[in-house]
Each structure stands twice: as structure tokens, then as C-alpha cells.
Amino acid sequence: MKVALLIWNGRNRALLAELLAQENCEIVGAQDDYFDSDVDMYIVDGPALATVRERLAEAKAAAEPLFLPILLIGPRPETMQSATRPWRVIDDVVLRPILKRELQARIRTLLHARGLSLRLRDSVALY
User: Fold this and answer.
1) How far apart, in whole angstroms, are the C-alpha atoms of residue 30 and residue 92?
2) 86: phi > 0 → left, psi -120 to 50 → alpha, else beta; which?
3) Is the full-model pTM beyond 0.90?
């Protein structure tokens, strides 16, 4: 599955990339590719959400009726206030400090839901 990391902090981005590699995920590279390729999940932080919220909303709308998960990772509850009405875009939130197992579980769950959505679409298309 393809995952786009919209994480401004380089160290956090590297740690997430390492975790996603363990999950056999392909990480979408250049920023230009974030919205131009078939991304299965977006992982964002507060600063990124504040700047690309509208594009994320457009990506979710374009993917409908498929589920396109967006996970917000932030340092504190105020992260949710960094963008206008983030709950319209965000599907799950992980607040720091983050336990690796919790993050893995949330990523796996969101990717599994995405996979189910894709399989349902494919099975319906057969009929």
C-alpha cells in the first residue's frame, strides 16, 4: 500500500518511514506526488494539516465512496485546533508521546479498512 507522509519534522518523518517499511508500505516520495498518485493513506502532522487541509479534503472527496484514511499525529490536543474543522478530513488522531505498538495498530487498522474498501469496490465491479 502507498502511504504519503506529510510530516514537517525530519526526524519524525524518518521514524515513521522506518515503521512503514516494516509494514511493507511504499512511501510516496516527492511532495508533488502526494496528491497526484494513488495514495492509500495519508499521515500528517499539525503544521502540514494547516497547509494542505483543503487538498486532503479534495483527495478524500475524489476517492469516495472508497475509504481514504488520514491519520493526524500531534504533540497535544491543540493540534486539532491548528486547522479549521479538522474532523471533516481526519479519521484518527495519535497524540504524542506515541507508543510504537499503538501507532502500528492504528496504521494497520486504517490500512486494513482501506483494503476492505478496495476489495468491496472490486467485487461490486464484477457484477
Assistant:
1) 24
2) alpha
3) no
